[in-house]
Design a protein that fits this description.
metal-binding, iron, Globin-like_sf, Globin-like, about 140 residues, single chain, Globin/Proto, mainly alpha, heme
């Protein structure tokens, strides 16, 4: 009988499925390359500095710990609250969808197992939705 693979989301199974930090950095590089060139992402790209070096490192470090690997973000940058970190930018449904769209395309380019690709995108929707929900609570209604 063949042992079943570890379940994604337990211990470092997701981190390993992503190819460790090297695989995560490839994902992040593809993500930002797509953000640079995909028209629906123009608005979210403008929220970043021209030089994406620090953004790339922060996202890769965050994903490392978030996927069960080394807590690189905390080691380099300190603790983070994803919704509060993004509170200074106007993020609504369109921005969330653009971010998820970039990430979906980047994930599709990776040599991940199909099951992990589906799992990862589903899991990334959770913080994306949370950011929008926090924005809705803290931003007063704008007149139409």
């Amino acid at each position: 009988m063949t042992p079943s693979p570890p379940l994604f989301g337990t211990a470092d199974a997701s981190y390993r499925a992503a190819g460790g930090i090297e695989g995560i950095r490839r994902l992040v590089d593809d993500f930002y390359r797509i953000m640079d060139t995909w028209e629906p992402a123009r608005t979210i790209r403008q929220m970043h500095r021209e030089d994406l070096t620090e953004s790339r490192d922060k996202l890769a470090c965050f994903l490392s710990g978030w996927l069960g690997g080394p807590k690189l973000f905390q080691e380099r940058y300190g603790s983070i609250s994803i919704p509060m970190f993004h509170a200074s930018w106007p993020i609504g449904d369109a921005e969330r969808d653009a971010w998820i769209g970039c990430m979906a395309q980047a994930i599709d380019l990776q040599p991940y197992a199909p099951e992990f690709k589906e799992y990862l995108l589903r899991q990334l929707r959770v913080p994306a939705e949370r950011i929008v929900a926090v924005q809705r609570k803290t931003t007063p209604e704008r007149p139409s």
